[in-house]
Design a protein that fits this description.
The chain is 69% helix and 0% strand. It folds into two domains: 62 residues, SP0561-like; 177 residues, no CATH class.
Length: 249
């Protein structure tokens, strides 16, 4: 398990896919031999939260749900929002650029290259809608619930201040965008013909697998951390006797 005394460079050597995760925390390459603690202190980052995210990414079996729930919702939402930006501004455009490049066209026939680009752009549009809903509706709602929850210490919350929408509604409606990404990979692996340019096709598939892994980690945080944390606050807000201050997080 990674600790605060590990050097930041060790993270990249251990798994280069952590570079985008570091970028989400505002950490760029060029950190020399500084330890994780030193870099986090320089950047003003919450060290325990950073370590939990990094260790969860490195080891699928390591997921400290209860510990992650204890962090302020703002930290969780900020990380999830930065992940969305990474997908839309970097990951998706990079994959689309390879698929749409005539010089790096995967397939001999133009119709097969067109089909791959069509399927990818359909997936991209679904992902954009998925992210927009979370960024514009779900995350602001969650932060609003947290704000009301903490205000119960100092004032009485009126019933009409509490939205009728529930975070469990979001969970029930949560699109399985990772499943759609799996389908897109299968189109390339199983149904399109052998590529004329195997190197370009391999790059696309590798990038899709990396994106899928990252998105699975992202969804775990949403469904196993964000949703339960907000659900507890909703429950306390709707109880006439008010929150149990001893369990406040």
């Amino acid at each position: 398990m990674i600790t605060e005394n590990n050097k930041m460079v060790d993270l990249v050597h251990r798994n280069y896919n952590l570079i985008p995760v570091l970028n989400r925390f505002g950490i760029a390459l060029g950190f020399g031999d500084k330890t994780i603690r030193e870099v986090c202190e320089e950047k003003g980052l919450n060290l325990p939260f950073f370590l939990e995210i990094i260790n969860s990414f490195l080891d699928d079996e390591y997921f400290p749900r209860e510990h992650l729930i204890s962090f302020p919702l703002r930290l969780i939402v900020d990380y999830l929002t930065r992940t969305h930006q990474d997908y839309l501004e970097k990951r998706i455009p990079e994959i689309e650029a390879i698929i749409s490049s005539r010089e790096e066209a995967c397939y001999e026939k133009e119709e097969h290259n067109f089909l791959l680009l069509k399927f990818f752009r359909e997936y991209k549009e679904e992902l954009i809608l998925h992210i927009r809903r979370e960024d514009e509706q779900v995350f602001p709602y969650a932060l609003g619930i947290e704000k009301l929850y903490h205000e119960m210490d100092s004032r009485s919350i009126k019933p009409d201040e509490i939205p009728r929408y529930s975070i469990m509604d979001y969970l029930r409606e949560h699109d399985n965008i990772e499943e759609k990404l799996f389908d897109l990979k299968n189109i390339i692996i199983k149904y399109l013909p052998p590529p004329r340019n195997p190197e370009a096709c391999f790059r696309v598939i590798a990038m899709l697998f990396d994106l899928e892994k990252d998105m699975n980690d992202h969804s775990r945080i949403e469904e196993k951390v964000l949703v339960p944390k907000v659900a507890v606050m909703e429950q306390k807000l709707r109880q006439p006797e008010g929150p149990d201050k001893s369990r406040r997080s």
